[in-house]
Amino acid sequence: MRIPEHIGIIPDGNRRWAEARGLPKETGYASGLKPGIKLFHLCQELGVKELSYYGFTMDNTKRPRKQTEAFTLACIKAVEMLSQEDACLRVIGNTASPKFPEKLLDYTERRTFGKGSIKVNFLVNYGWQWDLFELFTKKKNRKKDIARYLKSNDVSRVDLIIRWGGRRRLSGFLPIQSVYSDFYVIDDYWPNFKPGQLFQALKWYDNQDITLGG
C-alpha cells in the first residue's frame, strides 16, 4: 500500500461527541488526547514522515470562554505528550495574540525529541490570513519562492488530509500546502477514533490517481 509522506489531521466533532453523551461541550476536547497519540504511533509504525495536527484557529477563540480554555489546555497537553515521543516538533500559530498559550512559546522553533522519527506540525491559534500575510504585503516577492514567505515555511506539501466529524471543508487548514491534497472525511467524531478509520483512509488514498495536475 502506498503511504502518504505527509498526513494532515483535522480532529473535529469533540463538542458534538460530548453533547451526545449529555456532557458540557467543553468536556469533549480532553477526550481527543489519547486518539492523537494513538494515531501518532500508528503513523510512526507505517513510516509516515510528517504529520500536521489542527489544534485550534484564531476564529475558534470567539467561542465561549469555557470552551476556549478547554481546547487551549488540551492543545498544551497534546504538545507536551508529543514532546515525550520521537518527534521533530514545531507549534505554528499567531504568538503575537494573547490567545496563544504562553506555555507553548518554547515549541515555536522546531525541536527534536528522541530520535525525531516523524516531523510534527501542531497548529495552535492558527489563521490562514496570518500565515499568508507576507505574501499579501510583499508584492515584489510574489514571483519568487512562495514558501519562504509563509509563517508555516518549513511545512511540506500535504498528501492526504483526514477530517473527522463529517464536515466537508478545510476550515483554513494550511491553504498553500493543501493545494493538491486528497481529502478524506470520516463521519465519526474524533474522540471515537479507531485505527481502522486511519487504515480505511489509507486504502482509499492508495486508489487515488496522484497527478499533481500533470
Summarize the SSE layout with pairings.
Blueprint: E1 6-11, H1 14-20, H2 33-46, E2 50-57, H3 65-82, E3 87-92, E4 111-113, E5 118-126, H4 128-131, H5 133-137, E6 160-164, E7 182-186, H6 195-206
Parallel strand pairs: 1-2, 1-6, 2-5, 3-5, 6-7
Antiparallel strand pairs: 3-4
CATH homologous superfamily grouping: Decaprenyl diphosphate synthase-like
Low-confidence stretches: none
Rg: 17 Å
Count of individual domains = 1
- How far is the first residue's CA from the last residue's CA? 22 Å
The tally of helices reads 6
Report the major sheet. Answer: 7 strands, mixed
User: Helix/strand-derived class?
Assistant: alpha/beta
CATH topology: Undecaprenyl pyrophosphate synthetase
Order of neighbouring strands in the sheet with most strands? 4-3-5-2-1-6-7
Beta-sheet strand percentage? Answer: 15-25%
Mean pLDDT: 95
